[in-house]
Amino acid sequence: MRTTIHDLKKGQRATIADFDLDLIPLKLLEMGCLPGNEVVLLQVAPLGDPLYLDINGSHLAIRTETAKNITVEPIQTL
């Protein structure tokens, strides 16, 4: 089963693994949403959309629809 940013719980960390370039806005790529970068889910809006993220120190909000297209590998914490 693939895990996406949309599947993360608040405060959970993950590493971006893959995404389809045709489904991700260029602006996100410019802001550091690239494979290998760490992402943390900071907050979810009251109605579930958008998601507020920290990607390598940059804070940004993305739509749930976009988050479902970004595959991540969760980072296990001790």
TrEMBL record:
Residues 3-74 form the Ferrous iron transporter FeoA-like domain. One of its GO terms (molecular function) is transition metal ion binding. InterPro entries: Fe-transptr_FeoA-like, FeoA, FeoA_core_dom, Transcriptional_repressor_C. The keyword ATP-binding does not apply. Keywords: Iron. SMART domains: FeoA. Gene3D superfamilies: 2.30.30.90. This is Ferrous iron transport protein A. It comes from Flavobacterium caeni.
